[in-house]
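Budget justification aside, the reviewers requested a transparent look at the raw inputs and outputs of the sequence design task funded under Objective 1. We therefore reproduce one unedited record. The lines immediately below are the C-alpha coordinates for a 248-residue chain.
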Protein backbone atom coordinates (compact mmCIF):
# COMPACT_ATOMS: atom_id res chain seq x y z
CA UNK A 1 0.00 0.00 0.00
CA UNK A 2 1.33 3.41 -0.96
CA UNK A 3 2.17 5.63 2.01
CA UNK A 4 0.63 9.09 1.98
CA UNK A 5 2.76 11.66 3.74
CA UNK A 6 1.25 14.97 4.79
CA UNK A 7 2.23 17.83 7.06
CA UNK A 8 0.66 20.75 8.87
CA UNK A 9 2.54 24.05 8.68
CA UNK A 10 2.40 27.37 10.51
CA UNK A 11 -0.50 29.58 9.53
CA UNK A 12 -0.09 31.65 6.38
CA UNK A 13 0.29 34.85 8.37
CA UNK A 14 3.24 33.52 10.35
CA UNK A 15 6.81 34.52 9.49
CA UNK A 16 7.64 30.80 9.67
CA UNK A 17 5.12 29.74 7.01
CA UNK A 18 7.43 30.00 4.01
CA UNK A 19 10.32 28.41 5.92
CA UNK A 20 8.08 25.42 6.75
CA UNK A 21 7.06 25.02 3.12
CA UNK A 22 10.64 25.31 1.84
CA UNK A 23 11.93 22.80 4.39
CA UNK A 24 9.23 20.26 3.59
CA UNK A 25 9.84 20.51 -0.14
CA UNK A 26 13.57 20.11 0.37
CA UNK A 27 13.17 17.00 2.52
CA UNK A 28 10.07 15.26 1.21
CA UNK A 29 8.97 16.67 -2.17
CA UNK A 30 8.38 13.31 -3.91
CA UNK A 31 6.29 11.89 -1.06
CA UNK A 32 4.12 14.81 0.02
CA UNK A 33 0.41 14.18 -0.63
CA UNK A 34 -0.92 17.47 0.77
CA UNK A 35 -0.26 20.34 3.15
CA UNK A 36 -2.58 21.39 5.98
CA UNK A 37 -2.82 25.16 6.32
CA UNK A 38 -4.41 26.41 9.58
CA UNK A 39 -6.14 29.68 10.45
CA UNK A 40 -6.72 30.93 6.90
CA UNK A 41 -8.62 34.21 7.22
CA UNK A 42 -10.14 34.32 3.74
CA UNK A 43 -9.84 33.62 0.03
CA UNK A 44 -7.25 36.34 -0.65
CA UNK A 45 -4.84 34.93 1.94
CA UNK A 46 -5.43 31.43 0.60
CA UNK A 47 -4.60 32.60 -2.94
CA UNK A 48 -1.28 34.01 -1.71
CA UNK A 49 -0.48 30.90 0.33
CA UNK A 50 -1.18 28.53 -2.56
CA UNK A 51 0.92 30.68 -4.91
CA UNK A 52 3.84 30.41 -2.49
CA UNK A 53 3.40 26.65 -2.14
CA UNK A 54 3.24 26.32 -5.93
CA UNK A 55 6.49 28.25 -6.39
CA UNK A 56 8.32 25.88 -4.08
CA UNK A 57 6.60 22.89 -5.69
CA UNK A 58 7.81 23.98 -9.12
CA UNK A 59 11.36 24.41 -7.84
CA UNK A 60 11.21 20.85 -6.45
CA UNK A 61 9.92 19.40 -9.74
CA UNK A 62 6.28 19.06 -8.69
CA UNK A 63 3.43 20.57 -10.69
CA UNK A 64 1.07 21.13 -7.80
CA UNK A 65 0.19 20.07 -4.27
CA UNK A 66 -3.31 19.84 -2.80
CA UNK A 67 -3.97 21.81 0.37
CA UNK A 68 -6.26 21.07 3.28
CA UNK A 69 -7.57 24.19 4.98
CA UNK A 70 -8.61 24.55 8.61
CA UNK A 71 -11.68 26.75 9.05
CA UNK A 72 -11.37 28.21 12.54
CA UNK A 73 -11.83 31.98 12.28
CA UNK A 74 -14.85 34.24 11.77
CA UNK A 75 -13.58 35.54 8.45
CA UNK A 76 -12.79 32.07 7.09
CA UNK A 77 -16.28 30.85 7.91
CA UNK A 78 -17.74 33.97 6.28
CA UNK A 79 -15.83 33.17 3.06
CA UNK A 80 -16.00 29.37 3.29
CA UNK A 81 -17.73 28.96 -0.09
CA UNK A 82 -15.04 31.02 -1.85
CA UNK A 83 -12.35 29.02 -0.05
CA UNK A 84 -13.96 25.72 -1.06
CA UNK A 85 -14.06 26.87 -4.69
CA UNK A 86 -10.25 27.18 -4.89
CA UNK A 87 -8.94 24.48 -7.27
CA UNK A 88 -6.00 23.62 -5.00
CA UNK A 89 -8.25 22.88 -2.02
CA UNK A 90 -8.92 19.18 -1.48
CA UNK A 91 -10.42 19.23 2.01
CA UNK A 92 -11.82 21.65 4.58
CA UNK A 93 -11.59 20.86 8.29
CA UNK A 94 -13.35 22.52 11.20
CA UNK A 95 -11.05 23.78 13.96
CA UNK A 96 -13.60 23.80 16.74
CA UNK A 97 -11.32 24.73 19.64
CA UNK A 98 -9.86 27.81 17.97
CA UNK A 99 -13.30 28.76 16.67
CA UNK A 100 -14.80 28.66 20.17
CA UNK A 101 -11.83 30.57 21.59
CA UNK A 102 -12.28 33.27 18.94
CA UNK A 103 -15.66 34.11 20.52
CA UNK A 104 -13.96 35.18 23.79
CA UNK A 105 -16.43 33.50 26.12
CA UNK A 106 -19.60 34.08 24.10
CA UNK A 107 -19.64 30.33 23.41
CA UNK A 108 -19.15 28.14 26.52
CA UNK A 109 -16.17 25.81 26.69
CA UNK A 110 -18.50 22.80 26.82
CA UNK A 111 -19.33 23.49 23.17
CA UNK A 112 -15.89 22.15 22.25
CA UNK A 113 -17.06 18.70 23.35
CA UNK A 114 -20.04 16.39 23.10
CA UNK A 115 -22.95 16.55 23.39
CA UNK A 116 -22.96 20.38 23.25
CA UNK A 117 -20.85 20.55 20.08
CA UNK A 118 -23.76 19.00 18.18
CA UNK A 119 -26.43 21.27 19.67
CA UNK A 120 -24.97 24.75 20.18
CA UNK A 121 -26.42 26.90 17.36
CA UNK A 122 -23.22 28.79 16.50
CA UNK A 123 -21.21 25.55 16.33
CA UNK A 124 -23.77 23.60 14.33
CA UNK A 125 -24.09 26.56 11.94
CA UNK A 126 -20.33 26.50 11.35
CA UNK A 127 -20.24 22.75 10.80
CA UNK A 128 -23.14 22.83 8.36
CA UNK A 129 -21.74 25.75 6.35
CA UNK A 130 -18.40 23.96 5.95
CA UNK A 131 -20.04 20.69 4.91
CA UNK A 132 -22.40 22.41 2.47
CA UNK A 133 -19.59 24.41 0.85
CA UNK A 134 -17.52 21.25 0.43
CA UNK A 135 -20.28 19.18 -1.13
CA UNK A 136 -21.20 21.97 -3.54
CA UNK A 137 -17.61 22.10 -4.77
CA UNK A 138 -16.73 18.38 -4.72
CA UNK A 139 -14.36 18.79 -1.77
CA UNK A 140 -14.05 16.63 1.36
CA UNK A 141 -15.44 17.97 4.66
CA UNK A 142 -13.40 16.72 7.62
CA UNK A 143 -14.87 16.87 11.11
CA UNK A 144 -13.06 18.27 14.13
CA UNK A 145 -11.31 16.18 16.75
CA UNK A 146 -12.94 14.38 19.64
CA UNK A 147 -11.07 15.35 22.82
CA UNK A 148 -12.14 12.16 24.63
CA UNK A 149 -9.32 9.62 24.40
CA UNK A 150 -10.14 6.81 26.83
CA UNK A 151 -13.83 6.24 26.11
CA UNK A 152 -13.93 5.10 22.48
CA UNK A 153 -17.74 4.96 22.57
CA UNK A 154 -17.74 8.77 22.72
CA UNK A 155 -15.40 8.88 19.73
CA UNK A 156 -17.66 6.52 17.78
CA UNK A 157 -20.76 8.51 18.71
CA UNK A 158 -19.18 11.79 17.58
CA UNK A 159 -18.09 10.24 14.29
CA UNK A 160 -21.53 8.75 13.68
CA UNK A 161 -23.26 12.09 14.28
CA UNK A 162 -20.73 13.90 12.10
CA UNK A 163 -21.33 11.43 9.28
CA UNK A 164 -25.06 10.79 9.51
CA UNK A 165 -26.39 14.20 10.55
CA UNK A 166 -23.80 16.73 9.38
CA UNK A 167 -22.57 15.22 6.12
CA UNK A 168 -18.89 14.87 7.01
CA UNK A 169 -16.80 12.30 5.16
CA UNK A 170 -13.64 12.30 7.29
CA UNK A 171 -12.72 13.03 10.91
CA UNK A 172 -9.50 13.95 12.64
CA UNK A 173 -8.01 11.58 15.21
CA UNK A 174 -5.65 12.67 17.98
CA UNK A 175 -4.79 9.20 19.34
CA UNK A 176 -4.29 5.79 17.66
CA UNK A 177 -7.15 4.31 19.71
CA UNK A 178 -9.57 6.68 17.96
CA UNK A 179 -8.87 5.46 14.43
CA UNK A 180 -10.91 2.24 14.38
CA UNK A 181 -14.01 3.74 16.04
CA UNK A 182 -13.94 6.60 13.53
CA UNK A 183 -13.59 4.28 10.54
CA UNK A 184 -16.34 2.04 11.87
CA UNK A 185 -18.74 4.93 12.37
CA UNK A 186 -18.13 6.31 8.87
CA UNK A 187 -18.55 2.90 7.23
CA UNK A 188 -21.94 1.80 5.86
CA UNK A 189 -23.72 -0.90 7.86
CA UNK A 190 -23.94 -4.44 6.49
CA UNK A 191 -27.63 -4.03 5.61
CA UNK A 192 -26.88 -0.87 3.63
CA UNK A 193 -24.20 -2.69 1.65
CA UNK A 194 -26.54 -5.59 0.88
CA UNK A 195 -29.33 -3.26 -0.25
CA UNK A 196 -26.97 -1.17 -2.36
CA UNK A 197 -25.64 -4.26 -4.12
CA UNK A 198 -29.09 -5.71 -4.78
CA UNK A 199 -30.49 -2.40 -6.05
CA UNK A 200 -27.59 -1.68 -8.39
CA UNK A 201 -27.54 -5.21 -9.80
CA UNK A 202 -31.28 -5.05 -10.49
CA UNK A 203 -30.87 -1.62 -12.08
CA UNK A 204 -28.04 -2.90 -14.26
CA UNK A 205 -30.29 -5.70 -15.50
CA UNK A 206 -32.90 -3.07 -16.45
CA UNK A 207 -30.32 -0.94 -18.31
CA UNK A 208 -30.50 1.58 -15.44
CA UNK A 209 -34.20 2.19 -15.83
CA UNK A 210 -36.54 2.47 -12.80
CA UNK A 211 -36.95 -0.64 -10.62
CA UNK A 212 -38.86 -1.77 -7.55
CA UNK A 213 -36.92 -3.10 -4.54
CA UNK A 214 -38.67 -4.07 -1.29
CA UNK A 215 -41.79 -2.28 -2.55
CA UNK A 216 -39.90 0.99 -3.05
CA UNK A 217 -39.22 2.81 -6.33
CA UNK A 218 -35.60 3.42 -7.33
CA UNK A 219 -34.22 5.31 -10.32
CA UNK A 220 -31.01 6.99 -11.43
CA UNK A 221 -31.06 9.46 -8.52
CA UNK A 222 -31.04 6.70 -5.91
CA UNK A 223 -28.58 4.63 -7.96
CA UNK A 224 -26.02 7.41 -7.54
CA UNK A 225 -26.55 7.30 -3.78
CA UNK A 226 -26.20 3.53 -3.51
CA UNK A 227 -23.06 3.59 -5.64
CA UNK A 228 -21.53 5.94 -3.05
CA UNK A 229 -22.53 3.46 -0.33
CA UNK A 230 -20.39 0.78 -1.99
CA UNK A 231 -17.57 3.28 -2.51
CA UNK A 232 -17.60 4.20 1.20
CA UNK A 233 -17.65 0.53 2.12
CA UNK A 234 -14.52 -0.11 0.07
CA UNK A 235 -12.75 3.00 1.40
CA UNK A 236 -13.41 2.00 5.01
CA UNK A 237 -12.26 -1.58 4.54
CA UNK A 238 -15.65 -3.30 4.63
CA UNK A 239 -16.21 -6.68 3.00
CA UNK A 240 -18.16 -6.36 -0.23
CA UNK A 241 -20.19 -9.14 -1.89
CA UNK A 242 -18.35 -10.66 -4.87
CA UNK A 243 -21.11 -9.56 -7.21
CA UNK A 244 -20.46 -5.93 -6.22
CA UNK A 245 -17.01 -5.94 -7.83
CA UNK A 246 -18.36 -5.19 -11.30
CA UNK A 247 -20.38 -2.24 -9.99
CA UNK A 248 -17.38 -0.14 -8.91
Amino acid sequence: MKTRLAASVHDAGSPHFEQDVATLWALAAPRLAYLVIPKIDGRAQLDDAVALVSRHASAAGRQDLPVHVLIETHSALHQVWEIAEHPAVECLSFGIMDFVSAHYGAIPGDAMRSPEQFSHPLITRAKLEIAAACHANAKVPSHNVCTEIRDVSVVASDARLASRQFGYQRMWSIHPDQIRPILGAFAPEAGEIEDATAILLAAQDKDWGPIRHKSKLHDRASYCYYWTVLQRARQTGQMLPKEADGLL
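The chain has two domains: 5-186, 190-247. The mean pLDDT is 93. Computational costs for records of this kind are itemized in the attached budget.
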